[in-house]
Amino acid sequence: MASPAWGLPPPEDTPEEILRTEIITEARSPFDGKPLTAAEYALLEARLRSNPPNTQLNPKVEDLIYLIRLRKLFRSIGIPIK
Fold first, then answer.
1. How far apart are CA 74 and CA 82, in angstroms?
2. Which residues have a Cβ under 8 Å from the Cβ of 35 and sit 6 or more positions away?
3. Total-model pTM
4. Keywords assigned by UniProt (predicted)?
5. Which residues contact 27 (CB under 8 A, 6 or more apart)?
C-alpha cells in the first residue's frame, strides 16, 4: 500500500488559482491607512483625479535636487567634485 504524500497542502487550504481570481472588496486609504469599502475607495479615487493634490516643491528643494543630479552626472563622466 502506498503511503500518503507529505508535499501536498492540507485539504482545507484554498488553492492559489482560486485566490488569484478573488475580487478584492476592501481597500485602505493611501493617506492614513484606514480601511475603506470599495465604494468609498472609488469615490476617493474619483476625487483625486478631478482635483489632484498640490505637489509643488519648495524652490530651494528643487534647486538642491538639480545640483545633486548635476553632481551625479559629473561623477559618471569622471570629473572630480569636492
1. 11
2. 26, 27, 28, 29
3. 0.40
4. Transferase
5. 35, 36, 37, 38, 40, 41
pLDDT score of 5: 61
Q: Write out the E strands in 3-80.
A: 26-28, 35-37
Q: What are phi and psi of 4, to 5 degrees?
A: -65, 150
Report residue 61 as a C-alpha cell. 528643494
DSSP codes, 54-69: P-PPPHHHHHHHHHHH
**Distances in Å between the alpha carbon of 1 and those of 4, 24, 39?**
10, 44, 55
